[in-house]
Amino acid sequence: MDAKDIILEHIRENDEELSYIAKDIWEHPQVALQEEYASRLLAEKLEADGFSISWGAGGMPTAFIAEWGEGKPVIGLLGEYDALPGLSQDLASEKTPIEAGGPGHGCGHNLFGTACMGSVMALKAAMQQAGVKGTIRFYGCPAEETLVGKTFMARDGVFDDLDAALSWHPGDTNITWNGSSLAMNSFKVSFHGVAAHAGGSPWLGRSALDGVMLMDAGVNYMREHVPPESRIHSVVTSGGQAPNVVPAYAQVWYFVRAPKREQVEEIYRWMQDIAKGAALMSGASHEIEFITGCYDILPNKVISDLLYEKMADVDDMSFTQQERQFARDLQATFPDGSVQNGFDWMKRSTSADLDPTAMDDPLWEGVFPHSPTPPRLGGSTEVADVSWIAPTGQITTTCWPLGTPGHSWQTVASSGSSIGAKGMIFAAKTMALAAFDLLAKPALLEAAQADFEQARGDKIYVTPLPPEATPK
Question: Is 193 in the same domain as 88?
Answer without folding.
Answer: no
